[in-house]
Amino acid sequence: MRVKAFHLALGSISAPPSAPTLWGHLAWWVRYTQGERALLEWLEAFRHDPPFLISSAFPTGYLPRPLLPQVRIDDTAKRKSLKSIRYLSFATFARVIREGEQALLESPELKEKKAPKVTLATQTRVGINRTTGTAQEGILFTDRVYWLGDQEKKQTWTVYVQIRQPADYLEQALREIGTFGYGGKASVGLGRFEVVDTQEMDLPEAPSPTHYVTLSPTLPKGEGYWALETYWGRLGGHYAQAETPFKRPYLRAKEGSVFREQPTAGLLDVTPEPAPEGGVKIWEYLYAFPLGVRV
């Protein structure tokens, strides 16, 4: 699949960047830079024929491990090491989608433990007295944050976009979103990133595929091999201060899930009750980003 890659230098964030949240930030960027009418036209295009498909972010040079039938391994330590692999290099991914998990047994990710890691850590903040502007005694907060870089801080992350119609605004939009911060707790400095490079490239796909692996969360449907999660999202933009700031929860298949039929999910209505504004609908981006797999 021919795509445009956006390489990102990430700081500490509250969750790894996912396609639905990135798309939500893009929607608010359209709203704040071009107005409400432009946003409604942008949403209408996505409801019927999406101008582009966007993936979640992955370590540059790596893709999510496809959830394929597991290979039998008797050695307990080796089985645990294999189970812990989350990302595959392009070369290993290309073999796995053609040959199955058997190809992982000879991969650098297993034999040399070269797969990148995502570290979950804690970060402590102090409360600020709004009157004096100084630290408030006895007020400490501890947040969970993800550290997505390596020790040398050279590891970048990449978002892939399959562009179907001209979308020259994407790079500028992502740069500005990165300046203000992605996802939760952006107001306290989390979620900032920088677009450090872009690239036209091809993602690996299996010839004559029998199944499809998705690089973005989507709705589970039909047969396949899925990892499911219940998603409780928050509203963004100025709706974050609404009476009910949470979207309607739903069940979705994670990145790496494999489907027999090419997934066809689109936008999902997740408007809470009450809606943040009369006549407003809240949409969640759940288009799959499918790559062909042979099972």
UniProtKB/TrEMBL annotation:
CRISPR type III-associated protein domain span: 20-194
Family to which this protein belongs: Belongs to the CRISPR-associated Csm4 family.
A GO biological process held by the record: defense response to virus
InterPro entries membership: Csm4, RAMP_III_fam
Keywords attached to this entry: Antiviral defense, RNA-binding
Pfam families: RAMPs
Transmembrane feature ranges: none
Source domain of life: Bacteria
Keyword RNA-binding: yes
Organism encoding this protein: Allomeiothermus silvanus (strain ATCC 700542 / DSM 9946 / NBRC 106475 / NCIMB 13440 / VI-R2) (Thermus silvanus)
An example molecular function term from Gene Ontology annotations: RNA binding
Name of the molecule in the record: CRISPR system Cms protein Csm4
